[in-house]
Design goal:
7 helices, six-stranded parallel beta sheet, alpha/beta, Undecaprenyl pyrophosphate synthetase, 6 strands
């Protein structure tokens, strides 16, 4: 079992939280009920990450492609996200959790984006665990936005990787060591494309609402058995 003194615990874990809708369908429930159950899983995984010493946790909460879903589901997701921010922030603050947001969150509405910025400000000095909610996020869009930022700043070349990285959404967050995708799909779906160049991948058939602390430990155990070479033979 992973613990805070375990040197094999990854510093930064990113998770594609997939399978909420299929979890609900399997039980004859509305899709929004799957998202509600997934919200409770977020709380458990944040707690487990804190307990075992993960320092950065990036959660793919809403992608740029999710806007293609039915309007009622999108509105339900917005409301659940707002409720989560209002109901869970004090507990995370007490644990020393810093909360960040990555992506074009303003498109979620001024009420949510304003509250999100307030949460960031409120928790900015916490250092035990940094949780990054990727909201209205797309990896390609992040790169395009970084390039456009360079153009607007009239930065003269040559453009290096470091120069471009500094214009990413959360450039101070280290690249993820481990990327987890739940729900059985074997793709990364536009998540952290730039940052995941040398990440280790872990895929599981478990739907996100059923991905508990034990499943996170299994992913980390699998990660700990790998030898990371970073392109060196």
């Amino acid at each position: 079992m992973a613990g805070k003194d375990d040197k094999n615990v990854p510093r930064h874990v990113g998770i594609i939280m997939d399978g909420n809708g299929r979890w609900a369908k399997k039980r004859g429930l509305a899709r929004i009920m799957g998202h509600r159950a997934g919200m409770e899983t977020v709380e458990e995984i944040v707690d487990r990450a804190y307990n075992i010493g993960i320092k950065h946790l990036s959660l793919y909460s809403f992608s740029t492609e999710n806007w293609k879903r039915m309007p009622a589901e999108i509105e339900g997701l917005r409301e659940l996200f707002r409720i989560y921010l209002m109901s869970k922030v004090e507990k995370m603050y007490a644990r020393g959790v810093k909360i960040r947001f990555s992506g074009r969150i303003d498109a979620f509405g001024s009420d949510i984006s304003k509250h999100a910025r307030n949460v960031e400000e409120y928790t900015k000095n916490n250092t035990n665990l940094e949780v990054v909610f990727c909201v209205n996020y797309g990896g390609r869009q992040e790169i395009v936005d970084a390039v456009n930022k360079l153009l607007s700043e009239r930065v003269e070349g040559p453009i290096t990787e470091d120069v471009l990285r500094d214009r990413m959404y959360v450039p101070d967050v280290p690249d993820p060591d481990l990327l987890i995708r739940t729900g059985g799909e074997l793709r990364m779906s536009n998540f952290l494309l730039w940052e995941s160049a040398y990440s280790e991948y872990y895929f599981t058939d478990i739907y996100w609402p059923d991905f508990n602390s034990a499943e996170l430990d299994k992913a980390i155990l699998d990660y700990s058995r790998r030898e990371r070479r970073y392109g060196v033979a």
